[in-house]
Write a structure and sequence with these properties.
mainly alpha; homohexamer; 2 domains; 6 helices
């Protein structure tokens, strides 16, 4: 159950059609997943979100596509976004993430969460070394 | 201000000394940052946490060291752990993350947070395609 | 699936009946949604929660009803409470929130989440100006 | 302590100068708070974030300026972003939020958090009424 | 730096004085910590929060005082509330929590956070057994 | 819908069989709930998680079994982990938690969340008293 109604006859709105066409072209696929279909309840919001996501995630940047999706999935897990965890795990797999890499991603995310809570409970002072340009620090945690 | 007292004469406890020696050897550095010093208030907990972190983060695994630290930092940001954000951003830099890659990491994390909240507000149904083995899906979100 | 059993014959408990009667009177409706029915597993807890919510949300206060529900929905999104997002989005709509206002609410919430994560990643120092009584500051972020 | 170095001679970069000029013009003030100064470590990121925030928060939209800042502050509280809570509480005050309204905002946010946790603990089923267009529902929670 | 101004001459307001007197009496101590002093910026809010906390935490209930403070601290860690982690860790210690119990609390909280993230990443289906009254289930996770 | 495929013929993998046998022995029950079955998609991860959980939660330690499950459930509520809330509420009930204790747990968790948000919104300074060894402090919040 969503909090907005799925618009009928989605692509009769020219803004929606333009975004959907760009999604199809960018991905080389006719499949439009639900996030975009429901976001069409407000075509301006749909536009803003799609072009922003596309520029960060679907364009060549410094970080490779698979890694970007794995970072995105990690944040989505921490923020407990059900839909996002599914869509970005699927996207990471589509970008080549193997089951073994998926397991390692989950290992890192859950280990991080463990120490995040541990240190939020202990609250040790920051090391001054962290403020010295990070040039010659060897820290693993 | 921490919630535990920093133990005096830390390395007089043999468990603590063994962990600190392993930290120094693993990192090739004499620097022991505060998280390990404060965790020494309970040597058994220190041991568990260090060996777990070391095996995930400081050993050769499928994902390279820099990427692992970037994923760890991403989760720490989402969980609002002040110390962890600092230590793992520093660690990622020590592993070679450039300023431009740092900016891109922040761009991905903050974009993910934006759509995490958007979809937690809209709650679209999961696409059945996500359950078909993820073999032939092209999704960016 | 809930973690508590829905009590049978709910209104046979006089505390529960009194709260349900007050809900009906306050809302001018016979509809009792699930949160109140399941909370009846502990009539004292039901009482505490209802009267607290009622006084904040269903009485005339400084902030108008529609805005209060929108703020409540915003917090519920950030805390990833599925039921609460649905019930308070519905309540905001019942109080007059249009689809366009809903879209704007989601735009604000998701933009806030984006900068929340960005600044939790950068951790800039607080501006001293924030401590001067906020009298003459013009900040948008 | 921030995770990025504050760039020296900030406005020697033309992108940074253009954003800072736009901030000054939009706010009618010479004060540039730290978030923008530190974001200048990556001028492209600074640009993206400022223009996005400006369009949502500093332009006339459906929701009035004070309410927008209050919603933004509410989300920032829930996401535990120290800097954001300060800057957007200050911004809401600059937009006219009184101490009494601030207290009411905190009352709504903290009451919402209470029921968010309560219902995340009980997990009652969604009411089917929430899916009927929200037309004739009277729910306060 | 707080977002509200500490009121001057706090106890000149009779509502504030009554709450402070009740805090002193309940605790058998003259020490009033900052949360109550700053909450006095809105005496009605101070009243609501104190009496609610007092009834849950400072009265004899089913769960003993030390355990209640440990649960409260656990939630405060997960919600990343700096002040609350400090005050409720201190309160648990005042109620008899030893260093070894503190370490065990942190071990449980951080292990829970680890599996919370792991399962939010995997999203296994709920076991139907969880819905059968919990009468004959032996689950540790 | 899970993000990993449930492996077929689970116990044909000797690592998985060994863990499942240990789960059955530890619990004295043949019931293996879904978390362990899905985790078997990566036998090494399954092993790490089970033995870690078992040592914290299923062995005699300082804190009794029922209280440990209640703390675990509290953290799971705050982290919005649907599966974990169900499994650890069930586990607490299997360890003897009554409905009245469950209601009190929810009361503490939700009251904590309320003040967590309130103080994350006000951000009062830490009391210096919290740093003096916690020896003679009487604080309830």
């Amino acid at each position: 159950m969503a909090t907005v109604k799925l618009p009928e006859d989605l692509e009769s709105d020219p803004k929606v059609k333009a975004v959907f066409d760009d999604i199809r072209k960018t991905r080389g696929s006719d499949f439009i997943n639900n996030v975009w279909r429901y976001l069409a309840f407000d075509p301006a919001l749909l536009e803003e979100v799609w072009y922003d996501i596309r520029d960060v995630m679907a364009k060549e940047t410094l970080i490779d596509f698979k890694t970007k999706e794995m970072i995105y999935a990690a944040v989505s897990i921490a923020n407990s976004c059900d839909y996002c965890v599914h869509s970005h795990t699927a996207a990471a797999k589509a970008r080549g993430m193997t089951d073994a890499e998926h397991a390692e991603l989950l290992r890192i995310v859950s280990t991080a969460a463990r120490t995040n809570h541990l240190l939020n409970g202990i609250r040790p002072p920051l090391d001054q070394a962290f403020d010295q340009g990070f040039d010659d620090i060897d820290v693993a945690d």
